[in-house]
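Newbie here. two chains, one complex. Structure please?
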Amino acid sequence: MDWLIIAAIKSGFVIVILLTGFAYGTLLERKLLGRLQVRYGPNRVGPFGLLQPVADGLKLLGKEDTAPAGADRVVFTLAPMISTACALSAFAVIPIGGTIDLLGRRIDLVVADVNIGILYVLGVTSLGIYGIVLAGWSSNNKYALLGGVRSSAQMLSYELALGMSLIGVLLIAGTLQLPKIVEAQATVPFILLQPLGFIVFLIAATAEVNRSPFDLPEAENELVAGYHVEYSGMKFALFQMAEYVNLIVVSSLATTLFLGGWYGPFGLLPGPHWFFLKVFLLICFFVWLRATTPRLRYDQLMRFGWKVLLPLALANVLLTAVGVLVLQG
Amino acid sequence: MDRTHELLDPIQQTGEERMVLNLGPQHPATHGVLRLVLELEGETVVNCKPVIGYLHTGFEKSFEVRNYLQNVTLTDRMDYLAPLSNNFGYSLTVEKALQIEVPPRAAVARIALVELTRIGSHLTYLASQAMDTGAISIFLYCFREREKLLDIFELCSGQRMMTSYIRPGGLALDLPPGFEKSVDSFLNEFPARLAEYEALLTENGIWQERTVGVGILPAEDAIALGVTGPNLRASGIDWDIRKATPYGGYEEYEFAVPVGTRGDVFSRYQQRLTEMRESVKIVRQALNRLPAGPHMTRDRKVAYPPRSELATSMEALIHHFKLATEGYRVPAGEVYQAIESPRGELGFYLVSDGSSRPYRLRVRAPSFVNIQALARVAAGHLVADLIALIGSLDPVMGEVDR
């Protein structure tokens, strides 16, 4: 029974962290974006606008839940749930710290330490795309449909590069288990050994979470809002949640795989602090990117994914394999 | 009028799997209320039909029931991104019909103001073009600069946009104290800002991918369609009314007319950036030569007499009464005057029957003509390119529909 209770408590913690991260991620993005664009961002609700996410949440709760005529009701309702559930569960295998002693027990700071950690994350985040595609398809709206189609094309092109960019890390660490990969970076974070892999990963991850300059599925100037154009109220909030949680997940993944996870220099501060600091900085980076770049076009995005990113990722795999072979053999 | 029904069932017509997408009139990227009926194959535009009329105001008809002074306020509202240019074009037309001269101070101030308007209008172009391609920060940066221009306009006229400041005979009011200082400070800081935006866009790989070679409008097509302004010059035709048939004193200023080469979205973007730099030069020259003197013609048949004269001069009182009740009469005849507005050839064709109201005032609005290029160029582009293309033609719907 013990393990079940512990897992439940851990899951509860993770969900609370992720939902708070989502709420304050939106605030962080709006504040930071505001500063980058010579304006203030939200500053009316509470001190420094700190209660803005609460106000937004309450507002969305009070909105009428509409569905367009001709929509496939079941799929229309299911789609945001798929997106959110996948985004939330992807975090289960990501370690936010090492092992701590609590009430006489040894607790791993990860919900599930499964031996196929990375595969699990890739699989679950890919499933999340179904939410977007189905939302686009079931809305009975042309803009939403185009958004959904764009999203699936984008996922196909970039998931591959994303997976390939990780193989270098796996070759060096020799395991798929995320805590073990972090432990392998106790001295040197993999970003120093895998700079190319990190760059490819970061670009592919940006596309994976549909953020600028790869925010085509919801390009507001072309597709109004893309796949979630017909959604309102809490269903809309779920999509927003999925988006931010995905952002947190890829940032956490980058931290875990390339930036040394919970390890910090000189042993200052306990592990989770470092972990969250790195994730925070990565999220800031994504916001900065959004403030700077124009949006790519559909065909350019595909071309870039297949002709630039994938070959680069493959080259990285080859280089790493040779390097590992030479050093170990 | 609405022939969109021809498109509404394209599958039966063509036998192919095509989708009809109604873009606008409420759409974030159609700049007001432009509506496009698109026939799509995947995301490629096969056919594009602009539908206009959603901002119809009937200004041209309204001109006929208001007197010449009252009509100034209607011109503000046509091209609402360049109200001073419209005031200017209208005033020049009426002055031509009246055969009156404006005092030198007014003439120079007008040039400065319309060139500032051009900068403001092009800034709005740059803002929305960048926004449409996803570069949201540029949008806010450009509006920051435009805000300073609007402050200057407000200083002069009391209004940010609907200025009605340039009137037949001169200016509504004298330039306020502090005008030169605020224009000077704007001119000092603007070129550096412009360079900043260029640094963010011109060399940006994604920006180039999105704009170079996209939406090419060949020179011969541009001429055949009657396209004017930056859109025409970006296609390589050296045609600027300020140079070709100078008006309002433009012949006294030194400025270049930049000409593009490729006629694509990128050319039109560069075209407007260079034009803003040239406008800065013109405003600087105007500021340096701004003479003292009256701001309104002394012709009492057109301009109100000063209040001080009303108590002492019977003649002034009569003039004041006539102008206030009836307005001035314009000699019968026909006049056409065109100016180079930020969007192209803005022409006013005035037919007067000798009364104090126009018999007919027809406006040749550049946006209305330029928007025709859209249908010609759009076919074969992706939806995303179409959005960039609309932005690059920079239409103002208030002017299209009038």
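Moderator note: Chain A has a mean pLDDT of 83. Chain A touches chain B through 29 residues (CB under 8 Å). Thread marked as resolved.
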